[in-house]
Amino acid sequence: MEIQFPDSIQRFVILADPSVRGLHVEAASLIHRSPFFRGQVHHIVLASQTTAPEDFVSEVDFVRRTTADIEESQANGGGAASVASSARSATSTATASITQPPPLSSVLRVAPPSNTNIPVQSTTTTALPSLRLTNFAASGATDLFLFIVNGIAPASIGDTLARLLPVAGPPGACVVMSPTDVAPSISASIRKHAALTKWQFIIVHAVHLSPPALAAPEYPLFHDALVGSLENICLGITMGVIRQLPVNAGQVAGIVPTDLALNTALLAFSMMAKHQLPTSSNQRVVEIGIGELPENSLVWGMVGEYIMDYFGRYHNAINAVAPLSMFDCDPSVDFSVHFNDLWNWGMTFTAPMVWYRSYFSSRFQKSHLQKFPHSTTTERMLRILSGIDAAVEQLSPNSGSPSPSGATTGTSAPLALIAQTAGKKVFTPKNNTSNGCNPEEQSAMQFNLPRGGLGPAQISTYQLMLRLLSRGGPAAARWLPFVDLNWVPWEMYVKRVCLGVLHFIVKRVLDHRQPITFPYPTPRIHNDLVFVGSDRAPPINLWLRRLFPDLHWALRCGQQPNGLNIRLFAGGTDQRRLSILAQPHIQLLINQLAREQSIAKSAVEQRADAILRGIGDTMNHQQLRTLGLMIRKVFMTLYDRINLNSDAYDILFSAFRRPRCSVIIIPAHRSYVDFLVVSYLLVMMGLPVPHICSGEDFLRLGGIASLMRGSGAFFMRRSFKNDRLYGALFKEYIRHLVRGGECVEFFIEGMRSRTGKTMPPKLGILKFVTDAFFEKQDEIDDVLFVPVGLSYEKLLEGNVYADELMGIPKPKETVSNLLKSATVLRSKYGAMNVHVGEPISLKSFADDPHQVPPGFDKIPEAERVVLGSSASSVSAGGGTYTPIRTLASVAWRITYDLQRTIVVTPTSLLAAVAQCTLNAQQFKSSGVPTALIASNVEWLRAAVLHRGGKMNTQFAVCDGMQLMSLGIQNLQPRVWVSPLSHVFMDSELASTQMLLAIYSNQLLHVFADEAVLVLAAFSFGRGGNLGNTSVDAASALISPAQAAEVASPGELPQANTDRTLTVGELKAISKPLRKLLSREVPNFQRPCPISLDSWLSVSLTNLYDDNRSIRGTPLSESLDEDVSFVRTQFASFVTQLLYPLIESHWITIISVIAMSRPAVSVAPTLESPSTTTASEPAAPTTAAVVTKSSPQIIIDDAQLSKLTHQAALALHKNKVSPFLQSSSKESLKNCVGFLVEEGFLVPQPASPQPSYRLRANPAAQQQQASNQGVGGLNANQLDAQSTTQSISSPTTGISTTVSTVTVPVSLDDYLQFVNALRHRPSSAAQTKDAISIVADVLSKNGKSKM
User: Fold this and answer.
1) What DSSP element (H or E) covers 443?
2) Which region ranges are annotated with the description Disordered (predicted)?
3) Whole-angstrom Cα distance, residue 983 to residue 357?
4) Which of 366, 894, 919, 1331 is the most exposed place for a label (fewest CB within 10 A)?
């Protein structure tokens, strides 16, 4: 359903009443900023009902002043200028097209009514030239009228409309906004007028109109007096004149933001004009009631909670900056005692003491009047106190009935009592009335009246509109944030009103013109994220909460604006199990298994029921809050804070508010803490708690596992390939969660990343989720995947990961190991970083599976790789409904966005710099000066930020020395600073290098694109003869003078530093190099939808824009255009990130060759490897070495994994391989996987254990691989052959044939290609020596080959 405002409306006419002129200017501003118009309104007219010219001129003066306030607010970042950022809290989809509107004064006009002839004085507009005063003629055909009812007796509404609305001409439309207490009288008068004039009316009844929800915190102060009940109550609490509200804590507040009410009216008008809102043919009056629905509304108890969380924390800071001491130093508020509220709200000792509260309120009222004797400020203060009294009286169930003038009786008594007890003469305002206020201010303060009864038809119209928007598709749902009370972020909204009230009292009442900065509101969860330090908010002044903080947290955390706790839905209920077992395909499978196994059907059903009981969660509040309290204690012990991106709540809030959507949380997986932090955050935010997919390993934790299950964890086996029943039941369990619109959390990487890099996606659970959407259904319209980046300044399992990568087995998840790990509670681990990314819509990928990130182009259709058939196929879990291309694209995009959300820490910066400098020979004994380390850390920080890397704000602005200190603090005792200000590394421990690599790998995704180009250029680029002159890549960040003295592990050219390639050559080399790294850099995997030309252009531009690593202009589209690469600090650094990965590939292929040779030739020993230099006779080519291997040899997978790791350690010990981190078990495993994917190693299905043999016929094997399609998305087997180019490496002299589409098609080419990338002289001789070393390792271990 498309929502569009009628084109016939050219102008808005706001029917002004002097008593509410501020509201009308505010309405003009709201129309101007409305999402319907996005600042493109051509004409907004304020038409006054008065006939007196002098009053009209004063109206112009007022409009001039208030529009100046608007523009001043815009200039200071408030008002309309901040609409886009504030509206961002509603939804990214809805506000994506909202732009900053032009100043309101450019479209605002002031005019007399059409039935008066008032002369116009041009001198009245000199202060604001764009504000023209003209005679005005209204038109029912092209004008839309807005009338805010206030200060007018309901019986006289018809006469007022007759004076204001044009009589001549065609009938038009009028929007009326009125309080609900006079709804029946208003409706009767307007219906009578509509019957006579044939005009159309849309009446919006709001209980309590309040400031706009999308305005700036210091919302424009249009009014001379506070208008709404919410503002008056906020002010009364902070001034101490309100200590108790005469309402129950659970009573619906009925607060409706003005912009939401206005947008609802405009939306209703649009829907009626397009016949989208069902109405009868003769219906001329449509009434909409907002704010009466308990499930959609705020309750007074939560209003008090939000107000006290601001004033109760910051009252000292507020009084410190206020020009006069007029705010309460100990504010508090209680509510009427009601039995139903005791469970949710409890009761304070002072709640029943109404007389006690009244006594303190009167004392504060006296003190405020005594501070301003005989002055105009006293007059303003009387109006303020009168408005506060009236607001409280309106809430009382025994308040007086509305008088004909719209005011509530009984208002003058409290004001008179105040004046008498103050002992001062009352300063009588002009046009004095019985309550001491002039008619304008009196009616303005009485705008929000007590709740009246709305009829079912009025409420149902509003519900019908919301239902139509929810079911009208994305185009209609984008309007929900602007009309649905559910989309208002109530906590920050109320607190922003509190802040606005403070600015109002200082500016309007005290007439203070100097800027004052009051404390900005923080959410209630602030201190649950900031555990230590000066950034913590002050404690609240309520002594019961300060005395029992943990009890208060457990009872009140996650309380929603309606006063209720989060609704929890257990996934493993009896009803859900029965529903799953009753599914037709489950019953069919059960019958089939019963026949195959010759057992009774009931036995299979009992097993199925037991499986579901083992899978399902039992989410409940008791266990959730118990575990939450334990997690909170652990977090406060281990961490300093949880850093959360500023728009995280807005993103999650809007995602969960989307109608008919299922939200899937996908965090990065770096630590066991990942399981806990997302649920912890969502509970505190009052958002739905996710069902978390966990491994069955955790079931060994006993009681902890029970708490996890009760907090939403459901458990799955690591593998269930051979159990069709388990697979089908688990898939159906996921399907029920997704179809039920419940939140699910799983880790797309499958397991914790031990290396610090993002791992390639696992598609099993993702496929179950997407199948639930693509299968024919009508329960949900979309699935939103929300990537959540997680990183840690100090990794809890960092030392354990380093040991695992060095070959030490992983500890099992048992109670005993859990108790042993309790020693970690004695240390501090810095900060935890959580960054919530933008949701990814599955529906959008269904419409376009080839989406690419912003800034890139799609792969041309002719070049797209076919990823298999999209037809359904039968699997253990039932049908497959997701097209393979869509599944691959969604997985790739989730992983891509997940990497972009990773926050880079100071520890990662220091680790990367330490690897580059502390490994240099001259620094191993003397250390590196701290100044050099700090300058390089600062340089690296700038490079990360330039490429859009995420960093916390505090680290983005501090100097390099602070960053270095933070990093060293988290890396101690592996890295430390000596008393002489030199940085040292504990090189005696092999795991130190591995630990540094784990942290520095966080940077890989930031620099991977440019690193590929630089490595390709310096490996294959044309340049001078290098000889043996080289520079250590591991010392890349050392100053040039120091770098000349450093000897090599990996090498980059120094003499004649430019390396030149054509664009075509660069493209030809980048393709196989990206494939080579695809298992380490998921962005390079084959489902990547980005065209190679687009990727190349963007990467070259980044290199050119930053660090000047390229000479000339790299934007030519010609493939023959030369690109010259310069050896810069940046070029040296980024290649250092890739060298260990290239080395791992070299070690893996050497190990495969050694295991596949018929006889092991044990030549040089481990202690005395052969050495070959460039001046000696040429060694045999790598091709000759490889051809000695036999394709008949069967290579066991477990033996190969063990051998590659031992071979890497041996080669490093013998100084053949320079990088210890190349021996990482994860990297070597990825290299073996790459050989399998490319067909170099052929799996042997007949073998009882996973095993391989070498490919016999490369051409035939390549063709076979390309015909296999996607089984588990083995996308690297799917390339097609194309033209090749022969490029000679200047470093090795080896002529390497590189395909523009595929990696080398034989193991010979593969080894030559890797050798060229290693920058090692005499690589062929090194290869022969390395094979001998590996063969010796193999023979010493006594491994026989089958």
Assistant:
1) helix 439-445
2) 92-116, 1247-1275
3) 64
4) 366
3-class DSSP state for residue 286? strand
| Strand ranges for 107-159 from DSSP E | 108-111, 143-148
CA distance 23 to 17: 9
Residue 142: its pLDDT value, please?
83
Q: Which two tokens stand for residue 173?
A: 């439309």
Judge contact between 21 and 33, C-beta under 8 A. Answer: no
Q: Please give the distance of CA 23 from its chain centroid, rounded to a whole number.
A: 36
Sign of the dihedral defined by the CA atoms of residues 236, 238, 244, 248, in that order: positive
Q: What is the chain's Cα-based Rg?
A: 36
| AA letter at 971 | L
Spatial distance between the Cα atoms of 292 and 455, rounded to a whole number of angstroms: 10
| Residue for token pair 């000696």 | 1176
CA distance 742 to 737: 5
Distances (CA, A) of 1194 to 1242, 1245, 1247, 1333: 10, 12, 9, 21
Give the span between the Cα atoms of 802 and 1143, in whole angstroms.
Answer: 18
The span from the CA of 927 to the CA of 930, in Å, is: 9
Q: How far apart are CA 72 and CA 66, in angstroms?
A: 10
198 φ/ψ sector (left φ>0, alpha ψ -120 to 50, else beta)? left
CA distance 901 to 183: 51
The one-character DSSP state at 903 is: B
In 747-760, which positions are buried (b, 16+ CB within 10 angstroms) versus exposed (e)?
Answer: bbbbebbbbbbbbb
Selection from 82, 363, 102 nearest residue 217 by Cα: 82
Q: Are 1109 and 1125 in contact (CB under 8 A)?
A: yes
Mean pLDDT, consecutive 10-residue stretches, the chain (1346 aa), reads: 77 69 71 72 65 37 45 37 30 31 48 37 28 56 81 64 72 84 79 82 86 62 64 86 84 87 89 75 78 74 90 88 77 75 59 58 66 70 81 68 34 35 35 35 32 59 86 83 89 90 81 81 91 88 78 84 87 92 93 92 94 93 91 91 92 91 94 90 92 90 89 89 90 94 93 91 93 87 94 91 85 67 78 95 90 90 62 46 91 95 94 83 76 91 91 87 92 87 82 90 92 90 50 40 34 56 89 92 91 90 74 64 84 89 92 73 34 34 48 80 89 87 91 89 80 66 42 33 39 37 63 82 71 83 50
Closest CA to 1143 of 1319, 1337, 908, 1324: 1319
CB-based contacts of 407: which residues, under 8 Å, 6+ apart? 435, 442, 443, 446
The Cα-based distances of 709 to 695, 753, 765, 941, 1098 in angstroms read 12, 24, 19, 41, 47
DSSP-based three-state secondary structure for 1318:
helix
- List the structure tokens of 247: 């309402």
Q: How far apart are the C-alpha atoms of 438 and 231, rounded to whole Å?
A: 20
Nearest one of 251, 246, 234 to 351, comparing CA atoms: 246
pTM of the model: 0.84
What distances in angstroms separate CA 443 from CA 2, 48, 397, 438, 719, one per listed residue?
40, 16, 21, 9, 71
Give me the count of residues in the chain. Answer: 1346
Q: Which of 846, 854, 940 is nearest to 897 (CA)?
A: 854
- Gap between the Cα atoms of 649 and 162, Å rounded: 48
CA distances from 1095 to 597, 1102, 1123, 1240 (A): 55, 11, 16, 28
User: What CA–CA distance (Å, rounded) separates 1098 from 1090?
Assistant: 11
List, in sequence order, the alpha helices (H) in 1001-1128.
1004-1020, 1040-1043, 1063-1076, 1092-1105
Phi and psi angles of residue 1098, each rounded to the nearest 5 degrees, phi first: -65, -45
Percentages (nearest 5) of helix, strand, coil residues in the chain: 50, 10, 40
